[in-house]
Design brief:
alpha/beta; Immunoglobulin-like; 6-stranded antiparallel sheet
Length: about 625
């Protein structure tokens, strides 16, 4: 598929928000799943227990690990899943949870049991788990790595009960005889709701050790985390969680305008707002630098305006990123939810559309040109958090996803995503060494994702961990090369052209260019080749980014036309000869006369399958 986009339109998109104050180095986030990251147990028994399969530890994330992560160029670590979750593992001072309300033996890190505590699985001494977490927090910050943790505002575990702050446990003093009350924490099922009334009937009856019942909800029931109003949720629902109530009855629609304003006092806001504010303040006081908000689009925008403002009054530089999807019918705004979240104060929002476009090139017939329509999004374009992997998405190196191309497909995908905007970028642990997530691990089955529900270790990342040395001693040469390449990309894209510059797409100007990477009998360009410019007016730095997404074809004799209005974008109309130098993965360099760039284009070297170049343009 090709898109007809005018050059003038691209220039206008590129110049959006050109007047701005100097910005700090953009966040580069390493998503670290604590449960699996430092686990060197290689038993990997499907549905294995902690004793059988082991578990990552706070102490396992040692100085060697942090030095290596920092050296790659990361600025932030997202310690994923650290909050105490419902789990099938028992401790002397913490009984195991009912298996009927669990996904996997370890439990989902997004079914939080105590917002004021961390998971005992991750501590050498479970009773000292908070002290061990604080030590990890200090280690990260001593290496100048800021720490992000999860903030899961939409739902909690069915067994939620805070022993750290029992007075702040969700559900205490709720009115259970009504579906909705402004100051209830939960939504309560009525006798006539779907599922034939109490008791709650969970879809776990046929799972080992389960009977489909949960004693705590034998006389009352609560709405699931994914808004299912039923006494009998399905196995595809978030049956292990319960929906939180922010003072708006979601069954009445998206109009939340009756909720309090950003300046409202504590006494004026719904009870859940107050509890969530207490939670954020608790972790901020401990030294946590930021939060990744799970499913942020399901929460009223008024809450985000209010809570982020209060969080910033405590620490002005606290970082907020939002996982959100505008296509989800559960979103609580009629406007584009990513734009509304940015207005509410978020620093960044997930760029799911770009991810989908790139994955679609391999799985659903999309073209590289399909990215162009996503560059006309105003402020959102430069405040999108871009990623090629995260815990919810399939692995790039999966043998059954992304065209089955293996770890090499990460190169063009990451190069384009990391280079196209000024917003934060993120890499998921294991991505840098080609973790494939092949085979069934437990609850999720063989789904091309590294499990978040089970005790497990990552076969390829473990080779880098190498018994806690974090020196890559067991990696293949291909894996070492990939990890080194990611480090080069991260460091290169911290240059001003990428952290402060504007974007100018080139595919629109090359669709009729027969030398723009056509494969086979293609009669239009832009299927597998994507190219764009980045330029920072303040520093004068400019780059041409080129990526070949094709997994098997080397692109020969590529020539990229740089139209005349791009010369003004680059402020180079008066420079007669331009020099081009790859700053990513080669020593290639060339020069070209300005007057031939629009008609003849800049000639590039052969572009290998799944490759990319970050070409600096200088005098």
């Amino acid at each position: 598929m090709t898109w007809q986009i005018t050059a003038i339109g691209v220039v206008m998109a590129a110049m959006t928000a050109s007047s701005r104050a100097a910005e700090p180095v953009r966040p580069v986030i390493y998503q670290l799943m604590v449960r699996t990251f430092s686990n060197i147990n290689e038993t990997r028994k499907t549905n294995g227990t902690l004793a059988e399969n082991g578990c990552g530890k706070f102490n396992g994330i040692n100085d060697a690990a942090l030095v290596s992560i920092k050296k790659m160029g990361f600025t932030h670590i997202w310690l994923t899943g650290v909050l105490e979750q419902a789990s099938g593992t028992a401790y002397p001072n913490r009984p195991a949870d009912d298996p009927n309300i669990l996904k996997g033996i370890a439990g989902s890190p997004y079914a939080i049991k105590d917002y004021f505590d961390v998971c005992p699985d991750y501590a050498m001494n479970p009773d000292q788990r908070m002290e061990e977490f604080k030590s990890l927090l200090g280690r990260c910050q001593s290496h100048e790595l800021k720490v992000i943790i999860d903030f899961v505002p939409n739902h909690v575990a069915r067994s939620y009960d805070s022993d750290v702050k029992p007075q702040s446990s969700f559900g205490k003093h709720d009115k259970r005889d009504v579906f909705f009350d402004r100051d209830n924490h939960f939504f309560y099922l009525g006798p006539n709701d779907e599922g034939n009334g109490p008791p709650l009937k969970l879809p776990t009856a046929n799972l080992p050790g389960c009977n489909g019942s949960f004693a705590a909800e034998s006389e009352f029931g609560r709405v699931t985390g994914n808004n299912v109003v039923s006494w009998a949720p399905s196995i595809n629902d978030w049956y292990e969680t319960v929906k939180l109530n922010y003072g708006h009855d979601f069954t009445t629609g998206r109009d939340t305008s009756s909720l309090p304003a950003p300046n409202a006092a504590l006494s004026e806001v719904p009870k859940t707002w107050r509890t969530m504010d207490e939670i954020l303040a608790y972790w901020q006081a401990m030294g946590v630098n930021g939060f990744r908000a799970d499913m942020a689009h399901m929460i009223p925008m008024e809450f985000w305006h209010w809570s982020i403002k209060r969080a910033r009054s405590r620490h002005a530089d606290v970082f907020f990123s939002a996982e959100a999807y505008d296509t989800d019918p559960a979103k609580l705004t009629d406007s584009h939810v990513l734009d509304e979240l940015l207005k509410a104060g978020f620093d960044a929002v997930y760029d799911d559309p770009s991810y989908d476009a790139l994955e679609g090139m391999y799985d659903s017939g999309k073209w590289a040109n399909d990215l162009d329509q996503l560059t006309f999004t105003g402020e959102r374009f430069h405040k999108s958090l871009r990623y090629g992997e995260n815990h919810d998405e399939v692995r790039l190196a999966s043998p059954k996803e992304w065209g089955g191309l293996g770890m090499k497909v990460g190169r063009p995908v990451a190069a384009v995503l990391f280079a196209m905007g000024r917003g934060p970028v993120m890499l998921y642990n294991g991505q840098e060494v080609g973790e494939p997530a092949a085979g069934a691990e437990g609850f999720g089955g063989d789904d091309a994702r590294t499990t978040i529900f089970d005790y497990w270790s990552m076969p390829e990342l473990t080779k880098w961990v190498n018994g806690g040395k974090y020196d890559g001693g067991r990696l293949s040469d291909e894996q070492k090369s990939l990890r080194e390449w990611y480090g080069k990309l991260i460091r290169a894209t911290q240059a001003p052209a990428f952290t402060a510059g504007e974007f100018y797409g080139l595919n629109h100007a090359n669709q009729e260019n027969p030398n723009f990477g056509r494969v086979g009998d293609e009669t239009a360009s832009g299927h597998w080749l994507y190219a764009f410019l980045r330029h920072d007016p303040k520093s004068g730095q400019s780059f041409l980014i080129v990526a070949n997404f094709n997994g098997s074809e080397t692109l020969h004799n590529v020539k990229i036309s740089i139209p005349e209005n791009a010369w003004d974008f680059l402020n180079r109309r008066n420079i007669e000869t331009w020099k081009f130098t790859d700053r990513l993965d080669s020593t290639w360099s060339s020069s070209a006369a300005r007057d031939g760039l629009a008609s003849e284009g800049i000639a590039l070297p052969d572009l290998a399958p799944c490759s990319a170049m970050l070409i600096e343009i200088s005098k």
